[in-house]
């Protein structure tokens, strides 16, 4: 019996989640509702959609580096907020390709090394790279993707199914 490696498991899960995330992002009414938010404390639609996309770059950071210091002015940062849905989707495709490439270039042994997220000397979290990708990367992205589906629902935008048909694909409940 062959057991899939850590790398293979992450890549398989990533492919599934990226396809679902792209379907959600494609529905974002970016050009007409970018500044909409459901509550004063919430992110705008554009901020939330960009955050979901930018988390892919954070995942690549987990794979390729040993740490990230939020106080480091030279640390990589995402580009400016996309100005259109096309720009958002282009960034999503670019960051997805970069993450897949980084994962293909790593191996299970490297994924067991620790990644430290910190602010100066204060450690925010330290986990193996594989766990960081799953917990701080994929799970975090899935959480915000879920928020994005609520935004779409509140804006009366049909929500695509993620792990099965959505209410929009089945009719109403």
Describe the structure.
The protein is mainly alpha-helical and 173 residues long. It has a single domain, classed as Four Helix Bundle (Hemerythrin (Met), subunit A) (Up-down Bundle). Helix content is 57%, strand content 9%. It has a three-stranded mixed beta sheet with strand order 1-2-3. α3 packs antiparallel against α6. The longest helix is centred in the C-terminal third of the chain and has 26 residues. The chain is globular and about 45 Å long. The mean pLDDT is 92. It comes from Hymenobacter ginkgonis. InterPro entries: DinB-like, DinB/YfiT-like. This is DinB-like domain-containing protein.
CATH architecture: Up-down Bundle
Q: How many domain modules?
A: 1
- Give the N-terminus to C-terminus distance in angstroms: 43 Å
Share in β-strands: 5-15%
Largest sheet: 3 strands, mixed
Low-confidence stretches: none
- Briefly note the CATH topology name: Four Helix Bundle (Hemerythrin (Met), subunit A)
User: If strands are numbered along the chain, what order do they take across the biggest sheet?
Assistant: 1-2-3
Radius of gyration: 17 Å
- CATH homologous superfamily heading: dinb family like domain
Can you count the helices?
7
The top level CATH class name: Mainly Alpha
Q: Any idea what the shape is?
A: globular
Q: What is the string of SSEs from the N terminus onward?
A: HHHEHHEEHH
> Whole-number average pLDDT?
92
- Got a strand count? 3
Into which percent range does the helicity of residues fall?
Answer: 55-70%
Structural class: mainly alpha
Pfam family, one: DinB_2
Protein name: DinB-like domain-containing protein
């Amino acid at each position: 019996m062959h057991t899939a490696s850590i790398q293979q498991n992450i890549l398989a899960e990533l492919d599934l989640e990226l396809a679902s995330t792209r379907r959600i992002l494609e529905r974002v009414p970016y050009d007409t509702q970018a500044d909409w938010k459901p509550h004063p404390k919430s992110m705008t639609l554009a901020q939330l959609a960009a955050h979901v996309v930018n988390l892919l770059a954070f995942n690549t950071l987990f794979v390729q580096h040993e740490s990230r210091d939020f106080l480091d002015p030279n640390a990589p940062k995402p580009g400016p907020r996309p100005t259109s849905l096309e720009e958002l989707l282009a960034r999503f495709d670019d960051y997805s390709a970069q993450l897949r490439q980084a994962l293909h270039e790593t191996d299970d042994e490297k994924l067991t090394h620790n990644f430290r997220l910190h602010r100066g000397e204060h450690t925010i979290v330290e986990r193996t790279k594989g766990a960081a990708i799953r917990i701080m990367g994929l799970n975090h992205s899935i959480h915000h993707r879920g928020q994005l589906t609520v935004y779409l629902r509140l804006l009366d935008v049909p929500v695509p199914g993620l792990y099965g048909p959505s209410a929009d694909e089945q009719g109403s409940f």
